[in-house]
Every structure is written in structure tokens, then in C-alpha cells.
Amino acid sequence: MVTDYNNFFNINEQTQNFIRQHIKDDSYLLALAVKQNSEINIRFALEQIAARQQTKEKIPSWYLNDKLVFPPRISLEQCSSEITAKYKASLCKGENFADLTGGSGIDFSFISQNFNNSFYVEKDEYLSKLAKYNFDILGLKNINIINCSSDKFLENAANFDCIYIDPSRRKNNKKEILIENCSPDILKIKDIILKKSKSILIKLSPVFDIVELERKLNNITQIHVVAVKNECKELLVRLEQNNEKANIEIVCVNMTGKSRQIFSFNPVDEKNNEYDFVQNVQRYLYEPNAAVQKSGGFKSVAKKFNLKAINASSKIYTSDIFINDFCGRIFIVENVFSFNKTELKNNLKNIKQANITVRNFPLSVAGLRKKLNIADGGDIYLFATTLFDGGKVIVKCRKDI
């Protein structure tokens, strides 16, 4: 649905009050019940109510500011969350900054605060006007709104300390997983940008292959794998002038809201590292968080925390020592038993509910749950996996608190 935004920036008090009064209401049901009112822009108000509800958890500080106007749904779906925008801001600082794909302006609004002079570049005229409106409300200083394509902006751009790009990853309504199919095409413009900027920070979806990015992009210094509450949200690729690929650092960060789990490694070291295997599961079971799993740094994380691998393909580890700062979940092992009927019956006879994880095991979670006739949830954790000697086992655990 496309809204007529002719009077978009002249929102009257009646419309704002309507949004405040109905902020928790279902916008679809509200649309059916509300009557037309010449003093209220109903269509606009309904869209704003839906947008605010959509971003309450994603962008809490914007949600709480009732003066801000939210962009169309598609922009909100593709924009960063506040917690990841703040993380990006922690990586960038300097004198001059440019965001070549301004969009909804979430990332720009946080990153620009670390620079003395910032440029928001957006080819869509409406989004550019919206950004100007919202940035004024937010009180952002020393910013420039540029309504043009990134290519045109780069033609006359000066020098920057950092340029940020969040390329569009959709083509014909399909999600792209190849960087050369994104818009703008990073492979075509990165050399031009690096002549005018000390560094580039590129945001990509976690579906992108890290090894492929390393192969296709020169000048990479870091790749940040960013997870929120153990769910991968984005990859951040930093490119810098005059850098060799051997210097790449992969940084895995999992943000829980109250704390950050951070682990970093070098891909070359990961390739050269070896697992230290153990025959039996020890007192604690360690499961790397989603960021580490996406990064592929399995041998590096085992070496860092002196953990034993139970199988090269299982990607879970064990130790008799409790490691408080491990970058993932820690479980206390209560029992380990084989997959034969007798042992399953003896060890699971009173268990009606459990959290099941499958690692290097012939059954899926759904298949195993059906076979065991155990509902999801509860305080018990079952890991179905394969040991070093090839034995199929279930590890019964409880989560460390």
C-alpha cells in the first residue's frame, strides 16, 4: 500500500494523539472500526501504529520518541536493530564519514555521532526527506543529506575516514547470497572508495559465505559475525587501504542485552590448528554460540579455552573444568547413554519434556523427538551426537546458571 505523503511532514496534533491513543491496538482491526475524520490522517496514522509496533523491540529508543516518523514497512524490515547499530558505531570514529545507502537512517543516526562531519546518501527522495525530518528531531549535528546515487556522490566526494555500505540484497524479490549481485556492486566500486576513504564497513546478511568473501574482496582487515541473543543477524566486513589478506581477523560477537561474548581468531591459524580429542564426555559440555558457529572457528575456540573435542564433526566440546567466560552455552553433564532401546528406556522413562539438540547424528531433531516421544521445553537438555570412536550417544544435561 502506497501512501499519499503530500502533507507528510505537517502532522497535526489530532493525528499524533490518535497514534498515541491506539499504539497498542491491532492496526488491521482498527482500520475496520475507525471512522473517517477530516482532522486526522487515518491512513498515515494506521501505518505509523503498525510500524511502531513492529519496531518496539528492534529500535526501542525510536519507539519511545513519539515525534519521529517511521519509514515504510519494507525499509523497517531491512534496517538494522538498535543494538547492532550501536555495535557498528563502536567500530567507527574519525573526522569525516559517509553512509552510501542511507535508507531508514538507523545505522547513520548512531554511527554519525562519532564523527565531526557526516554524509547521509540516499537516491530515494522520500527517504531522504524523511531522514532530514527525523535527524532534526533526534538533534543530530554536523550532518549532510545528499539525495543522489552512491555512484554520483563518489564522483565528487572528498576524503573520508570511513564509508559505510548496506547494499540491497534483493533482486526480483529474491534474496541474493553473492556479493556481486548486490546493489551497489561492491566489487565494482570498492577500489574507487578505497582511494577516497581510509576504510569501508560493509553490512551483509549472515547467509553470505565468509570464505567466498575472503576470496572475492581484497583489503579485508576484519569480518565481524554479529549475533543477538544467540541468533546471527549480520556480517560486517571491514576493508582498509594497503592491507594484505593474511592479516584478516574474524571477530565473533554475541550480544545478550546485558553483556557481550566476544571471540576472535585468524583464518590461517584456524586452518593450522588441531583438535585435542577425548574418548568420553567429561563433567561440562560446551556449545559455541551462533556467531562462532557461523564463523567456522571451531578449532580455534577449542584451543583458546583448552577444550576437548568428542568428534571432529560434532562441534561441541567437553572439559572437567568450568570456564566462566566461554563464548557460548555451558551445560553440566548428568549422564551419557547409548541409543539402544534398553538404555533409552532406563534413562528417559520419566522425562516428558526436554530441549533436544542434534550434532553429527543420523536423526533430525524432529525425528528424534518423535522417536523418543518427548515434548519440547523444560529444564532438561539432550544432545544427540557421535563420539570419537563413532558411538552414537545422548548426553543428558542441565544448563549452568
Description:
With 401 residues, the chain is α/β, with parallel strands linked by helices. It has 3 domains: 13-55, no CATH class; 78-247, Vaccinia Virus protein VP39 (Rossmann fold, 3-Layer(aba) Sandwich), CATH 3.40.50; 271-399. Helix content is 32%, strand content 28%. It is built from 16 helices and 18 strands. The protein has helices spanning 13-21, 27-33, 42-55, 60-63, 73-78, 82-91, 106-111, 125-138, 150-155, 186-196, 210-216, 267-272, 290-295, 298-304, 341-348, 365-372; strands spanning 94-99, 115-121, 143-146, 162-165, 170-171, 174-175, 199-204, 220-228, 231-240, 249-255, 260-265, 284-288, 308-309, 317-319, 328-338, 353-359, 375-386, 392-399. Strands 3-2-1-4-7-9-8-10-11 form a 9-stranded mixed sheet, sandwiched between helices. Strands 13-14-12-15-18-17-16 form a 7-stranded mixed sheet. It has a two-stranded antiparallel sheet with strand order 5-6. α1 (13-21) packs across α3 (42-55) and α2 packs antiparallel against α3. It is globular, with a radius of gyration of 25 Å. 35% of the residues are buried. Mean pLDDT is 91; it is low at 1-6.
**Spatial extent as radius of gyration:** 25 Å
Q: Roughly how much helix do the residues carry, as a percent range?
A: 25-40%
Would you tell me the structural class of the helices and strands?
alpha/beta
CATH architecture of the largest domain: 3-Layer(aba) Sandwich
CATH homologous superfamily label of the largest domain? Vaccinia Virus protein VP39
Question: What kind of sheet is the major sheet?
Answer: 9 strands, mixed
Total beta strands: 18
Poorly predicted regions: 1-6
CATH topology of the largest domain: Rossmann fold
| Number of helices in the DSSP assignment | 16
Strand content: 25-35%
Average of per-residue pLDDT values: 91
User: What is the CA–CA distance across the termini?
Assistant: 47 Å
Q: Tell me, what is the CATH class of the largest domain?
A: Alpha Beta
Domains, number: 3
